[in-house]
Amino acid sequence: MQIVGPHGSGKSTLLASLARELARRGERVTLVTLRDGQRTMPGDWPALRALSPRLVIIDGYEQLGWLARAQLRYWRWRQGARLLVTAHGSQGLPTLYATRMTPELAADVARALAGDQFVIDPMDLHSIMAANGGDLRESLFALYDRFEARRRGE
Fold it and tell me: How is domain 2-98 classified at the CATH fold level?
């Protein structure tokens, strides 16, 4: 299964929360986080495989090259393990959830983080979200800078 969505839309956060909850419930979970340009599984993959996980979670699955994906699919099939991945676009797997960010959701997140000190104008939020292509992570950095400037009276 896959969780798909644009940069900064909460895929990794959702995945980490799911992994924690499943592990808390006793599920044997292995979480692998891939970085830009990482075409193969990490060096500790053999040790992780030896744990016989029932669910392999891969954050950034689209980074893997075709050979690494084929090897992973074969291993998963032999072990009877399930696969849950994140990607920016469909990887041909059933979609569990598609993330997307809206200015309203970004405002809710910013309000939750800032509490009663929330002093961002809705137009600021819309312009920041647009400038960052809907990337919540980058927008929150920009909102923080604007929040601090306003808090200082700039």
Answer: Rossmann fold (3.40.50)
Q: Is 120 left (phi over 0), alpha (psi -120 to 50) or beta?
A: beta
- Residue 89: partners with Cβ closer than 8 Å, 6 or more residues away: 4, 62
Residue 33 pairs in a beta bridge with 59
pLDDT by residue (tens digit) across 22-73? 999 999 888 888 887 778 777 767 777 776 778 889 999 999 999 998 988 8
Average pLDDT over residues 79-86: 90
**Separation of alpha carbons 132 and 139, rounded Å:** 6
Whether 64 and 40 have beta carbons less than 8 Å apart is answered as yes
pTM of the shown model? 0.75
Rounded CA separation 103/140 (Å): 11
So what's the pLDDT on residue 92?
92
CA 119 – CA 145 distance, rounded (Å): 12
Write down the domain spans for the chain.
2-98, 103-151
The sheet carrying 29-33 orders its strands as: 29-33, 55-59, 82-87, 2-4, 95-98
